[in-house]
Amino acid sequence: MSKRQRTRVIRGVQYAVLVAVVLCAALFADWPKIAKAFFNVDVAVAQFPGIITSALLNTIVYTALGFAFGLVLGVVLALMRLSSVAPYRWIATIYIEFFRGVPALLVFIALGYGVPIAFQLVFDIYSTVMLSLGLVGAAYMAETIRAGVQAVPKGQVEAARSLGMSSTRTMVTVVMPQAFRIILPPLTNELILLTKDSSLIYLLGLSAQQYELSKFGRGALIQYQSLTPILLAGLCYLIITIPLSRLSSRLERRYGGGRRGQ
Known about the structure:
The chain is an all-alpha fold. The chain contains eleven helices and no strands. It has helices at 3-28, 31-38, 41-46, 50-81, 86-101, 104-119, 125-151, 154-162, 167-197, 213-224, 228-261. The longest helix is centred in the last third of the chain and has 34 residues, at 228-261. The protein is globular.
């Protein structure tokens, strides 16, 4: 048997196994019980409009706050990593390594419970989420931004300096615009990750008006004893993340192709 024939046989066996599994699931699954657990129409209807007007909206707001703060801090950290001043590089490196190695869960706990206990300093829910998501996100975005800055051709910097531009003006008007064009796809991916990390806010003890999607779904799960609210919460996350994923892929094809053609 030739190599191509063996490949066809193996592929055929894989397809046959897959079809058998699907048929077994279709024939022996308790579909009424599954439908009641996951697709209870009465429970689903009861989640509206709150799951959209409150939970989904809060998730978007929390993510936007964390991303905005993280992006600003990430730019600062990236420039510190690239600085010729050694202490700046050391501080940025320690920060980045620390927050990339620590789970976001611990950051939420530290800001939500540790800081108020240790310093009697209490943040409101929006500030806590913004700081928690931003501190973690900044560590990842800083490395992405640094890579983007280093990817800008040195000739661009030399040309700008030869025209009499200062280092700061060169960085702001020449390097950073090109760097952000390069890093838009990975920044979009980071936004998706922050969207999912926003679910950790459930640790902070929220009022009903402050629920995000995960907390909303968990509360409805306990109330109705049905997985339908969790399924709806997952679908709402997909409403956010799928368009962002498509945007990231489109930006990667557009700007990646442009760089290859240069």
